[in-house]
Every structure is written in C-alpha cells, then in structure tokens.
Amino acid sequence: MEDTYKHKGLRKQLVKEIANKGITNKNVLAAIGKVPRHFFFERIFDAHAYEDKAFPIDLGQTISQPFTVAFQSEKLNVKAGQKVLEIGTGSGYQACVLIELGAEVYTVEYHKKLYRKAIRLLPAMGYQPHMYHGDGSKGLPQFAPYDRIIVTAGASDVPVELIEQLRVGGLLVIPVGSKALQSMLVVEKISENKVRGEAHDHFRFVPLLGERGRSAQAGTGKFLTIEHDEDKKMP
Ligand code: SAH
Fold first, then answer.
1. CB-ligand 1 contact for 73 (6 Å cutoff)
2. pLDDT (tens digit, 9 = 90+) per residue, 132-158?
3. Which of 87, 131, 215, 227 is found 20 to 30 A from 118 (Cα to Cα)?
4. CA dihedral for 30, 78, 224, 234, sign (positive or negative)
5. Bridge partners of 63?
6. CA 56 to ligand 1 center in whole angstroms
7. Exactly one of 64, 73, 91, 137 is catalytic; which is it?
8. Could you tell me the strand order of the sheet in which 194-203 lies?
9. E runs forming strands in the chain
10. Which residue out of 48, 73, 87, 135 has the highest number of ligand 1 atoms within 8 Å of its CB and is therefore the one to mutate?
C-alpha cells in the first residue's frame, strides 16, 4: 500500500469538494485530508476512493460517502482525548477519521468478516481503535460512559441503551427513519434523565442490524456475543 502524490492530490480535491458542500470544521477537513481512503479499496477500484461517493465493501455493506463521514464527524463535535463509541466499523474509515480528530475510539462491527478485515488493516495503517465484533445496537456497556456515540447504520429508533451509555453533556449522532431515508439526529444528554435532539438533512444508510436494529433477525432473540481482540482483555 502506497500513498503517492497522485493520491494526495486527489485527496486534496476531495477535501475541497466536501468543503464546497458545506463542511466548515477545519479539524474535520484536515482529518479527511489525512486518512488515505484508497487503502480501504481493492487496487483495481483505487480511482474511486477519492470520489465523494459511498462504495460497496463486502457482505452488502458500504464505506460511507466522504461527505457523510465529514457531516457526522462535524455534528459529533469531537474534542481531543474524548472517548468515542462507533456502532458499525464497516471498513474502518470513519474510525480512522475519529482517531485523526484525537478521539479514543471504541468501534463495534456486526459482521465477523468485516471485523477481521479491519483488525488487520487499521493497525497496519497506524490506527489503533479498540475493535469488537458483535451486536452494537445496544452499545458497548463494558466501557461506558462515552463522551460521544456515532451510529453509522440506519436505525428505526434511538436505542435507549445508547443514551444510557452516554456521559451527561455527551452527544449521540444517529441516522433514524425509514429503511429508504433517515434524518441525522443529534441527541445531547443534558442530564441523567433528559435529552435534547435536533434533526438534520436526509441520508441513506445500510440498516442497523441486531436486537435494536431493523433486520430480519431482530426480535428472534439472535444475539452475537461481543468478542474481544486477542490481545485485549474484557473487564
Ligand atoms: N463506518 C463505516 C460505515 C459502514 S456501513 C465506514 O466508515 O466504512 C455500516 C456498518 O454497520 C456495516 O458494516 C454493518 O455491518 C454495521 N452494522 C450494522 N448493524 C450493526 C450492529 N447492530 N452492530 C454493529 N455493527 C453493525
């Protein structure tokens, strides 16, 4: 894997493009400018890595559109040193952007194959989020509370567990709506039992699976145990 001048040039263009589409947070734009997105693509699709488009990865999942990653990151308003939980590791691209923003990232992926890919790729790129395989629709209570929680799959509702695992003053960014279209909800936990939310433009994400998700398995009691990385002990 190589990050050539050509890739760097294309990445600069991409940053300009998403800035033109309305992203203003300098740190977010800088983070997008740093993460080599083509590392998440097979070499033959390399040219697509710096288009502002979602792209299929594996198992019917996608690497989110750069604008969407930037939009969610901007709404998440991450400060360096904050503990951030991501539901839906997917390719791992969003997790890398969060790390570039200075976050300590915990990320959960439902599909084992994608989790396996990410635990190999991200450390090789120099990114070290805490990665877990399992159903994150009910969060990752073992390491709560979090300063920020980001869900990168479309939900039908806000899972109450995610609010519970948020620190007071913390933010949750989650796409909520129908299967076809979701609004980006930004929920602030203003006290132990009070939240305030706002909804933003529309997006289309792959569905949130699992117990609090909208999959065919939902409600059947199927639940994956959260597995840990070989070298990481669960508390
Ligand atoms: N953040 C990703 C976007 C991936 S698409 C990226 O930057 O590439 C959404 C991902 O959420 C998919 O990989 C899907 O498998 C995962 N997902 C869906 N439901 C989930 C759940 N309940 N727990 C954990 N991951 C889930």
1. no
2. 999 999 999 999 999 999 999 999 999
3. 215
4. positive
5. 55
6. 12
7. 64
8. 130-133, 104-109, 83-87, 146-151, 166-177, 182-191, 194-203
9. 55-56, 62-63, 83-87, 104-109, 130-133, 146-151, 166-177, 182-191, 194-203
10. 87
